[in-house]
Design goal:
By secondary structure, the chain is an all-alpha fold. Helices cover 83% and strands 0% of the residues. The protein is built from three helices and no strands.
Length: 89
């Protein structure tokens, strides 16, 4: 079948990591929806790439990047929420 889904998973995984950090830095509204959607696409395409592609490595790497981005982004938002809530009287 080729490497199509693995490449898509890798691209979405890398974009998710970069977009997640940019959104954390700039605190864009509705940014979490974009990051969660991109990470979900990376995970889904990674699973499909592992099942259907000839080369499984790209699908595995893309899926792992999507999972890591979700974990980092969730922890970052928890940290930001705790930091800002600690300023309230």
């Amino acid at each position: 079948m080729g490497k199509t889904f693995g490449v898509l998973a890798l691209v979405f995984g890398l974009i998710t990591l970069l977009a997640g950090w940019a959104i954390i830095i700039f605190l864009l509204p509705y940014g979490s929806y974009i990051v969660y959607a991109l990470a979900g696409l990376a995970i889904v395409f990674g699973i499909i790439g592992i099942i259907k592609d000839d080369s499984k490595a790209l699908g595995i790497v893309g899926m792992i990047l999507g999972i890591i981005a979700l974990i980092i982004y969730a922890f970052a938002w928890v940290f930001i929420a705790v930091f800002f809530l600690s300023w309230l009287p």
